[in-house]
Every structure is written in structure tokens, then in C-alpha cells.
Amino acid sequence: MGPKKKIAKKAASSPKPSSSSSKKNLPPCAGYLISCDVPTKEYIKHLNELKPVDKKFILEDLDSRHLLIKRKARDEIERKVEAWMDENVFSAVERVGENLDMS
């Protein structure tokens, strides 16, 4: 089975002032916190880049394993990541008997 990913609802009591001027002040429950491995995070960032500017879903790139995403995008991201993982998992069982002559 592929690497596990965890999607949890981000709950914040109040927006905290950021030390960086590029960070946005986000309202409470602005989105979902995604915890995943680095390759999965890069794939999610790739999906975000394919979207037009007004449809981008990443609110904040937190660190190497965490993203804050828009609430509405959660289901779409989960479906696309699961499909991507299914495509990229090799199983030796699927290959058994592939070239057998069945005549």
C-alpha cells in the first residue's frame, strides 16, 4: 500500500500575526491541514499550478510535509491523490502470468 496521508480540519481560535509580510491573515477554519510525504505534497502543488489563478486551492505552504488548503478543494484533492497513488503503485501480483500461453 502507498504512503498514508492525513487530512485534518484546521481549527484556529484567532488569526496570529505573522512574522513575514507575505503571509496572509487567515480566518478561523479557513481550510484543511494536509499532512503527507514530500512526493505527495509536490503532486498536490502540481495540481494547484494547473488551476487558473482564481481556482488555486493552496492557502499556505507550511513546511515540507504540510499544506493548508481551501475547504472546497478537499474532496477533489483526495480523489486525485488516490488515483495518482493507484497509478504509481507496482504490484508483482498483477504481473504474474502476464505472458503465459493459455492455448
Report what the structure shows.
The chain is 30% helix and 19% strand. It has a domain at 6-12 and 27-87: Alpha-Beta Plaits (2-Layer Sandwich). The chain contains 3 helices and 4 strands. It is of the alpha+beta class and 103 residues long.
Write the layout of secondary structure elements.
Layout: E1 6-9, E2 31-35, H1 38-50, E3 58-63, E4 66-70, H2 74-87, H3 92-95
Antiparallel strand pairs: 1-2, 2-4, 3-4
**Count of helical regions:** 3
Strands ordered across the widest β-sheet: 1-2-4-3
Name of the CATH first level of the domain at 6-12 and 27-87: Alpha Beta
The helix/strand order is: EEHEEHH
Main beta-sheet annotation: 4 strands, antiparallel
C-alpha geometry: elongated
The CATH superfamily label of the domain at 6-12 and 27-87 reads: TFB5-like
Question: What labels would you give this structure?
Answer:
four-stranded antiparallel β-sheet; 19% strand; Alpha-Beta Plaits; 103 residues; elongated
Compact summary:
The protein has helices at 38-50, 74-87, 92-95, and strands at 6-9, 31-35, 58-63, 66-70. With 103 residues, it is of the alpha+beta class. Strand 3 (58-63) and strand 4 (66-70) form a beta hairpin.
